[in-house]
């Protein structure tokens, strides 16, 4: 039986290899995601290990995974710690984010995603004698006006030694220029993962980032040979004053790497979701392929039963074919997954996450996952067709026509309705956020509904198929009638094929509605709440120098400039932003409506909170909120509750000085400019920000367009990923039609014998394909509209109040489905038209 299964597989290798493509795509997505994720993890681990000393001395309650703050350690500790037993040397470091390099073309380098780092150049060795950044050409900066850049930044900006480099900082100095005197790189390989690094001499760095104080962001203590990090940290800690701590380099590196990996961990989940979608769609293709192939082999299988093969042996022979197919698809998918990982790496390099300096990591778990996923999905998809083979009676081998036993449509309909009901309950529970892991419930609910509709579709779609058959007969005569009847002949096969397309299009329609609704909500919010005449903000979403606002206020025609800043802090274990603005700014610039308390009471170490947040946390005026700022936990008194205001980006708002006192940098994130409407104001504002390309000036329309842009980018990215699922669905239509032509070879020959031309035959096959594609599109659009509206309804409390269904996009989806049907029919129709009439009639 094993040999018979292999011979059967090889005899139909072309048909089965088409199905392999589906499993290859799904496995490749899983492998590519895992390889990219492991590479990302290893790169951050190695990078962080090479950017810390053996012992790091820093202000207490610091976090190596957070942005450097203005909290410092005294420079006098360098000399004091130098004679600690086991210490080889002590070096002081100055570090800050928001130091942007401008290339020769006047555009920013990096800064979008990975940080733009600035600091002093230090010769201090990394922990465990690891090779860190080293100057590979030129020399170290020695005085003000000289800098060192990392090699990737210099190459991207086309900056060479001796050239003047324009730099934009978030400090009070703002923009500055310096001569490039050195280029640094990792001699043993590696990269900054898309971050940029600008190094000054120590005095200049202290002047820029620490207001000229003789202090450091942290100190590195290098261990002597034979001294452990733990022992040296303990010895150093005994010499430290209150408010300063010593941690091992290993702990600091792990802390920083874990924080970054957690921040980008959604990438892995995001990509694995689409791998799952591809596998589900591929499973439909495999089920359909095996169902057709088993049906075509029914006489052969019946003959095996007549020769003494048991039910289990016949079923196992089909599963053996599936096993071989799964192993083959997994192997090809494994290789393709590596190429996909390279593509993912190149894609995210465009968004600032550059891993080009690191080799891809192929872990054993990735190989195991590839074969586990590929084999299990293929075997699972082949299980039900294999099970049906056991119901073939041996006596059927004597008959001229053998039909595979089919399950009851009523049973499938009942199963489908149960799945739809269960999926609807899970979806509702997830969207209502009444369960512990709502995301899982939403995913399970969507999958349940999709599988339920796929199961019940032979009954649900019957009216559509009947209507299509009637329309075809009226529009295309007898050929149209034949195409319609062929679609109705085996509704299971027709709907199973269309279900793959249904899944892809339903998710595409959902995203179209979410994207369009999000943009409509943004437009409505901005239209109703836009204050002032111009908005000034950073193109990379980071802070910028307070000097920008001061210069804008001096532009003729500008009446006032209102500033807001914010910091990402920890609140109850969850990341949460804290905004900061002066009370006068909130009252006169942002039109904040107070529901409780008075803005006049907003002073340092107090906060006002929005009404939704106050309700969630049960906060009243006079309560305390504990927030983990840069210097640790702080209790801030609630002095007011304000109505939701879109200009205030975060639900907790304090004074700017509170953030500054806690160690957050003195810089702005968002400005609103009021003008007297005179001519030339906008030109004057543009002139101020011209030397600072991280900042842009926008009126209401430009601001709305800027807010819509990331939504469009996200939707396009998701459409691109869903395109793979749609490609598998198209392949499914091609495969089904091709196998159907083989199954109906004798019928095709008879049609040709009675006068049907090749053109008419091609038209008949094309019409069948269009029915399948349009059926999938209709089901997908209907489900997509339902999913999209339900999702947007659940998100109405998140500020997405407008539900917009893009009818034009949905119409395009339906028209594209017709094109898909025509294109998918090209090869099967050509094959049908080229069949030899006499040989086709003689086929058994």
Helix coverage percent of residues?
55-70%
Which residue ranges are poorly predicted, with pLDDT under 50 across at least 5 consecutive positions?
400-406
- The rounded Rg comes to 33 Å
Calculate the terminal CA-CA distance, rounded to whole Å. 23 Å
Number of domains: 3
Q: Please indicate the percent range of residues in DSSP E strands (runs of 2 or more).
A: 15-25%
Number of strands: 27
Look at the helices and sheets and give the structural class.
alpha+beta
Shape: elongated
Mean pLDDT: 83
Number of helices: 26
Biggest sheet, in brief? 10 strands, mixed
Protein name: FtsX-like permease family protein
Main location: membrane
Subcellular location: Cell membrane
Membrane topology: Multi-pass membrane protein
Note the main attributes of this structure:
alpha+beta, 3 domains, elongated, FtsX-like permease family protein, 27 strands, single chain, transmembrane, ten-stranded mixed sheet
Written description of the protein model:
The protein is an alpha+beta fold and 844 residues long. The protein folds into three domains: 47-263, no CATH class; 461-531 and 700-844, no CATH class; 534-698, no CATH class. The protein is 56% helix and 17% strand. The strands form five sheets. Strands 16, 18, 19, 20, 21, 22, 23, 24, 26 and 27 form a ten-stranded mixed beta sheet that branches. Strands 4, 5, 6, 7, 8, 9, 10, 11 and 12 form a nine-stranded mixed beta sheet that branches. Strands 3-14-1-15 form a four-stranded antiparallel beta sheet. The radius of gyration is 33 Å and the shape is elongated.
């Amino acid at each position: 039986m094993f040999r018979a299964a292999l011979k059967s597989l090889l005899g139909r290798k072309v048909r089965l290899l088409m199905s392999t493509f589906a499993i290859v795509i799904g496995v490749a997505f899983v492998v590519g995601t895992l390889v990219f994720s492991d590479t990302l993890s290893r790169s951050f681990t190695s990078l962080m290990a090479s950017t810390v000393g053996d012992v790091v001395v820093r202000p207490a309650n610091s976090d190596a995974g957070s942005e450097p703050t203005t909290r410092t350690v005294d420079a006098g500790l360098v000399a004091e710690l130098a004679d600690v037993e086991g210490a080889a040397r002590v070096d002081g470091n100055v570090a800050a984010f928001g130091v942007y390099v401008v290339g020769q073309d006047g555009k920013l380098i990096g800064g979008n995603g990975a940080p733009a780092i600035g600091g002093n150049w230090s010769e201090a060795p990394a922990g465990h004698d690891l090779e860190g950044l080293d100057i590979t050409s030129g020399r170290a900066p020695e005085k003000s006006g000289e800098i060192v850049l990392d090699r990737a930044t210099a190459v991207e900006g086309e900056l060479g030694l001796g050239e003047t480099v324009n730099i934009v900082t978030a400090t009070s100095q703002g923009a500055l220029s310096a001569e490039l005197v050195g280029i640094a790189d990792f001699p043993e390989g590696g990269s900054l993962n898309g971050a940029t690094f600008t190094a000054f001499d120590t005095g200049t760095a202290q002047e820029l980032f620490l207001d000229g104080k003789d202090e450091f962001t942290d100190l590195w203590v290098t261990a002597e040979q034979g001294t452990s990090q733990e022992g040296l940290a303990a010895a150093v800690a005994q010499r430290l004053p209150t408010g300063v701590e010593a941690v091992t380099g290993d702990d600091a590196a792990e802390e920083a790497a874990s924080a970054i990996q957690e921040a980008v961990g959604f990438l892995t989940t995001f990509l694995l979701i689409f791998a799952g979608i591809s596998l589900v769609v591929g499973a439909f293709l495999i089920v359909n392929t095996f169902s057709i192939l088993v049906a075509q082999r029914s006489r052969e299988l019946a003959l095996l039963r007549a020769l003494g093969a048991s039910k289990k042996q016949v079923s196992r022979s089909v599963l053996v074919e599936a096993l071989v197919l799964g192993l083959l698809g997994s192997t090809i998918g494994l290789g393709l997954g590596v190429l996909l990982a390279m593509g993912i790496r190149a894609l995210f390099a465009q968004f600032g996450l550059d891993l080009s300096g690191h080799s891809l990591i192929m872990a054993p778990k990735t190989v195991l996952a590839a074969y586990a996923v590929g084999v299990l999905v293929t075997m699972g998809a082949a299980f039900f067709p294999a099970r049906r083979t056991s119901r073939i009676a041996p006596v059927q081998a004597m008959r001229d026509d053998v039909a595979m036993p089919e399950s009851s449509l009523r049973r499938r309909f009942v199963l489908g309705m149960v799945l739809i009901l269960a999926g609807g309950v899970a979806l509702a529970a997830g969207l209502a956020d009444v369960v512990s892991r709502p995301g899982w419930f939403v995913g399970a609910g969507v999958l349940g509904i999709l599988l339920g509709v796929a199961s019940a579709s032979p009954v649900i779609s019957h009216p559509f198929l009947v209507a299509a058959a009637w329309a075809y007969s009226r529009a295309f005569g007898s050929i149209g009638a034949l195409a319609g009847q062929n679609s109705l002949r085996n509704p299971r096969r027709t709907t199973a094929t269309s279900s793959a397309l249904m899944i892809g299009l339903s998710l595409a329609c959902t995203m179209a509605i979410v994207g369009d609704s999000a943009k409509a909500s943004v437009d409505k919010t901005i239209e109703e709440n836009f204050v002032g005449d111009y908005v000034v903000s950073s193109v990379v979403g980071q802070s910028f120098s307070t000097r920008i606002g001061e210069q804008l206020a001096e532009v003729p025609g500008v009446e006032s400039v209102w500033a807001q800043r914010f910091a990402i802090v920890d609140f109850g274990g969850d990341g949460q932003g804290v905004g900061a603005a002066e009370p006068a700014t909130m009252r006169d610039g942002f039109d904040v409506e107070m529901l409780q308390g008075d803005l006049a009471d907003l002073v340092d170490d107090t906060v006002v909170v929005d009404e939704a947040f106050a309700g969630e946390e049960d906060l009243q005026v006079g309560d305390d909120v504990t927030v983990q700022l840069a210097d640790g936990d702080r209790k801030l008194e609630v002095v007011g509750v304000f109505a939701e205001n879109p200009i205030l980006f975060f639900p907790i708002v304090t004074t700017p000085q509170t953030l500054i006192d806690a160690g957050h940098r003195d810089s702005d994130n968002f400005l609103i400019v009021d003008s007297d409407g005179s001519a030339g104001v906008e030109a004057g504002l543009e002139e101020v920000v011209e030397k600072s390309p991280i900042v842009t000036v926008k009126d209401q329309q430009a601001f709305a367009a800027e807010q819509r842009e990331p939504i469009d980018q996200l939707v396009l990215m998701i459409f691109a990923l869903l395109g793979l699922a749609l490609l598998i669905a198209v392949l499914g239509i091609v495969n089904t039609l091709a196998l159907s032509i083989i199954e109906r070879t004798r019928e095709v020959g008879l049609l040709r014998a009675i006068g049907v031309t090749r053109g008419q035959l091609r038209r008949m096959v094309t019409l069948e394909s269009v029915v399948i594609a349009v059926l999938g599109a209709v089901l997908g659009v209907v489900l997509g509209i339902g999913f999209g509206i339900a999702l947007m309804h659940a998100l109405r409390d998140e500020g997405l109040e407008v539900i917009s269904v893009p009818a034009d996009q949905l119409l395009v989806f339906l028209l594209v489905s017709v094109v898909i049907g025509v294109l998918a029919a090209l090869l099967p129709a050509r094959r049908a038209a080229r069949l030899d009439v006499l040989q086709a009639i003689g086929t058994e």
